[in-house]
Write a structure and sequence with these properties.
By secondary structure, the protein is α+β, with helices and mostly antiparallel strands. The protein has five domains: 106 residues, Rieske [2Fe-2S] iron-sulphur domain (Rieske Iron-sulfur Protein, 3-layer Sandwich); 89 residues; 87 residues; 131 residues, no CATH class; 97 residues, no CATH class. It has 26 helices and ten strands. It has a four-stranded antiparallel β-sheet with strand order 2-3-4-8, with helices on one face. Helix 3 packs antiparallel against helix 4. The protein starts with 6 loop residues before the first helix and ends in a 10-residue tail after the last helix. The relative contact order is 0.09.
Length: 605
């Protein structure tokens, strides 16, 4: 198509640049020229000029080495095919390639300096959403990178991913748990680690939603308002009889009633605790992560997010229905008796933690010197009585949950290599449950129905006891002296050690050495997070790390408890590393493409 520049276009000629002569383009059919910020491929096909970014959006191979036929450009590296006019791909794994306006003035070919599509936050948001819809990891990663580059904060990107997930999920799954974890860790993460972490969460959300129809809600109860007590009784009832629609409408009615978040916390988690350690701790853990996600992205999203918890309330399975908590000793009657005591016993005024020095973390209740060690005991009745007594004496439930988390972390830290790697499953869920319970109990005033979780967590720690026989040793001070002292060397050593199949304690030693030398903890968190999200691992590994970081913040910087938490998390991670790392490859490619690096074979131009 031949045309002349109109006066209006001529007055805006600075928006275009002269790319080539028309005669040369017709002769060569494909020419590569330097654009404003990238190499541009000029094509002559079926009597018309076209211009595209010369870098294949899949892995950066020069499109100039492809072939033209019937208005389609084929890249021969992975055989992705693109429409010349729009730049859109016919092969979704490859992503669309930016296309440019082309105009002709005499024998001169002019190309716009910017792509046809306006590249802004709206564009990148649409691309991220499209990548989630089509479940294409490369496009998701590109959208995340671009949005962060445009200045979007991590929680804003997470909000976009969560909205997609809420629309397409039938039930809260591990993808949304992952993005909730990333929201918690984000303040500690470098730009690159944050991209890998967000991309991991986005990819899993897309996988959860693939092939699912859009979700439709029945809504609340015609926006009528109800008291907390009535709504709580209803939700527990619908949960016990496994009535999904009743539970969802009650949840939405609670939102319509404009109850404070502390009341919503009581309503939801009282229902969750009706079943002992429901779904191996997942019911409470996932439900807590939904509350944490809303804290990050805004509670105006609650009507989209909270209905995803319904199946965890109505379909979960209690340990009362299984065998592990029934033999060789039946724990269920002991738990039920202790629950009744928690409900009915008189209590002293609650004793709050005294204020702690800035940066030193919270101090334990004076009534709880080494309580977490006692929670590792072998007499379940004595353990339950200890918790019941602590509550009666006015110890805050959140403080007891913090001690439970420490006891659960000790199970991880002392987990021996003689165990099968699959044996991590139980103590990992116990630790995640106890950390989640701490969050639930820290949200304000609670009631005995929620406090029951303390008894459930304690018995899960008890059930895990045989997995510490023999007990793995903690890092030896003398052995640590042979390790590097510089922060950079220790952090590099962690990554290098995880590149190899070494003993589970090797990384823990480096971590403890780093902590004892007083190096910045955020850099350690960033390194351990990157080491986790680069691997082909499920969400539990990142979840354990986040729980360890969350609990570590509650203890003084130089405390043995802080070390113990990181030892447990690093030993758990080391047990599963390295993997093939195929899932993170698309993120690396997207970063290199964003930086303009050549990914194609060495020597190619």
């Amino acid at each position: 198509m031949s045309s002349s520049l109109t006066p209006a276009v001529a007055s805006q000629v600075e928006e275009f640049f002269r790319a080539a002569s028309l005669n040369d383009l017709k002769t060569e059919r494909m020419l590569v020229v330097s654009g404003a910020d990238r190499p541009v491929l000029l094509c002559w096909s079926e009597g018309r000029p076209f211009a595209l970014d010369n870098r294949c959006p899949h892995m950066g191979f020069p499109l100039s080495k492809g072939t033209l036929e019937s208005g389609v450009l084929t890249c021969h590296w992975h055989h992705a095919q693109f429409d010349l006019q729009s730049g859109c791909t016919f092969d979704l794994f490859a992503d669309d390639v930016p296309a440019f306006e082309v105009r002709i003035e005499g024998d001169d070919v002019f190309v716009s300096k910017r792509p046809k599509d306006r590249i802004d936050v709206g564009y990148h948001s649409r691309r991220l959403f499209w990548g989630l819809e089509q479940n294409v990891g490369l496009i998701q990663a590109k959208g995340i990178i671009a949005l962060l580059t445009e200045g979007e904060r991590a929680n804003s990107v997470i909000r976009r991913i969560a909205r997609f997930g809420a629309r397409n999920h039938r039930v809260w799954e591990d993808g949304l748990t992952t993005v909730s974890i990333v929201a918690r860790l984000a303040p500690h993460l470098s730009h690159t680690t944050l991209i890998y972490a967000l991309a991991k969460g986005a990819r899993r959300v897309a996988e959860n939603c693939e092939g699912q129809p859009a979700r439709h809600s029945a809504g609340g109860l015609n926006r009528e308002r109800f008291e907390e007590e009535r709504l709580s009784a209803w939700l527990s009832h619908w949960s016990r009889i496994r009535h999904d629609e009743g539970a969802e409408r009650t949840l939405l009615a609670a939102l319509d009633s404009q109850l404070p978040q502390t009341a919503l916390n009581r309503i939801v988690f009282a229902a969750v605790q009706d079943r002992i350690y429901a779904d191996g701790g997942h019911a409470l853990d996932h439900s807590n992560k939904a509350f944490e996600l809303l804290d990050a992205i805004g509670w105006d999203e609650a009507s989209r997010i909270l209905p995803l918890l319904v199946s965890h309330l109505t379909r979960s399975r209690s340990e009362e229905e299984g065998g592990a908590w029934r033999v060789p000793l039946d724990l269920i009657p002991l738990i039920r008796e202790a629950e009744d005591q928690v409900r009915n016993q008189p209590r002293s005024a609650q004793k709050k933690d005294p204020p702690s020095p800035a940066g030193a973390g919270l101090r334990r209740d004076r009534l709880l010197p080494p309580l977490y060690n006692e929670l590792l005991g072998t007499d379940p009745k004595a353990i339950l009585e200890l918790i019941v007594s602590a509550l009666a004496e006015g110890v805050t439930p959140a403080s007891i949950a913090r001690e439970l988390s420490m006891a659960a972390a000790a199970r991880l830290a002392h987990f021996p290599e003689s165990n099968d790697v699959d044996d991590w499953f139980g103590p990992v869920h116990t630790f995640s449950f106890c950390n989640a319970l701490y969050q639930v109990l820290s949200r304000g005033e609670v009631n005995p129905e929620i406090e029951r979780g303390l008894l459930h967590g304690a018995m899960s720690i008890y059930v895990d006891r045989f997995l510490n026989i023999p007990s793995a040793k903690l890092p030896d001070s003398a052995a640590l002296e042979s390790l590097p002292s510089a922060a950079g060397a220790l952090l590099s050593g962690i990554l290098e050690t995880l590149d190899q199949k070494k003993g589970w304690s090797a990384v823990a030693n480096l971590v403890v050495r780093y902590l004892r030398l007083g190096h910045p903890e955020s850099a350690l968190i960033d390194t351990l997070t990157f080491a986790t999200v680069r691997e082909d691992l499920d969400f539990h590994k990142l979840q354990v790390l986040e729980a360890a970081v969350t609990q570590a913040e509650l203890w003084p910087l130089d405390s043995p408890e802080r070390e113990l938490l990181y030892v447990g998390a690093s030993r758990h991670l080391a047990a599963y590393c390295p993997t093939r790392r195929s899932s993170s490859q698309s993120v690396g490619v997207a970063l290199r493409l964003h930086r303009g690096e050549a990914i194609h074979l060495e020597g190619e131009k």
